[in-house]
Amino acid sequence: MREIQNSPIGVFDSGVGGLTVLRELYRQLPQESILYFADTARLPYGDRSAREILEFVREILAWMTQQRVKMVIMACNTSSALAVEAVRQEFDLPILGVILPGAKAAVKQGQRIGVISTPATAKSQAYRQAIQEINPNAQVWQVGCPPFVPLIEQNRLWDVHTKEVAREYLTPLLAHNIDTLVYGCTHYRHLEPVIKTIIPTTVKLVDPASYVVQAAKKELELMGLSKTAPALPTRFAVSGCSSTFSQLSKQWLGYCPSVESVSLPMGFTPTVAWEQVEMLE
């Protein structure tokens, strides 16, 4: 049991978006060791099919289980929307998605809720379903924002073009007089300084990263898996260019991390029929 307690928590995203979750882990669970994986070779996920996303997630989880993680946080809304239920049936470890914690936080903030996300997450209606299951009276408007992730991954946060794009996608939500805005993609928290210049100060912002870590903390305590030894340095791995990820991460981590390149294992055999995946598409 002690060996499992001291195993790392696995965190994955398509790129730097999951660093918002990583920072929350540092803040809320400083004693835990972390394995962070970014699938940068296949970024962005937002315009991928449900079948592709599930295949990617299976490969990542298969690799993470080989690294002996004790829990996985899917720090990617697209993966959480399209794959979390299927992979929970296939892998024998706790797997947390970001959508349910984000939805629970949103309904505590307001009833006219806007969600900005990748097109795949918006198409899935995952946030609307989760929010309205909690509060059937809540109104939810979702907007897919395909340019956001590439702009963030290209480190173009302060471009004039980025603010113009953000205004374009936020305007339809503001027209509905939203009182709450959910970051339906972990990348989007990085755009907060830009977003705050566009939306009224009365609109409450919900970052699911904070709430999924709260859920992870409770889960670890319930399962008796909270770490007892001091945290080891975070291990970073990517499927693409390690130096690019390291340089881009510096502005949010405060340093350039050492990053390893990983070739994901291929040929993982699914135990869930493809028909279940096709129902999502």
From TrEMBL:
Residues annotated to bind substrate: 13-14, 45-46, 77-78, 186-187
GO biological process, one term: cell wall organization
InterPro entries to which the protein is assigned, alphabetical: Asp/Glu/hydantoin_racemase, Asp/Glu_race, Asp/Glu_racemase_AS_1, Asp/Glu_racemase_AS_2, Glu_race
Active site: 76 (proton donor/acceptor), 185 (proton donor/acceptor)
Pathway annotation: Cell wall biogenesis; peptidoglycan biosynthesis
EC number: 5.1.1.3
Keywords, alphabetical: Cell shape, Cell wall biogenesis/degradation, Isomerase, Peptidoglycan synthesis
Catalytic reactions on record: L-glutamate = D-glutamate
PROSITE patterns assigned: ASP_GLU_RACEMASE_1, ASP_GLU_RACEMASE_2
UniProt-listed Pfam families: Asp_Glu_race (PF01177)
Enzyme kind, highest EC tier: isomerase
GO MF term set: glutamate racemase activity
Keyword Isomerase found: yes
NCBIfam families cross-referenced by the UniProt entry: glut_race
HAMAP family membership: Glu_racemase (MF_00258)
PANTHER family: GLUTAMATE RACEMASE
Similarity remark: Belongs to the aspartate/glutamate racemases family.
Function in brief: Provides the (R)-glutamate required for cell wall biosynthesis.
Protein name, UniProt field: Glutamate racemase
Species classification: Bacteria, Bacillati, Cyanobacteriota, Cyanophyceae, Oscillatoriophycideae
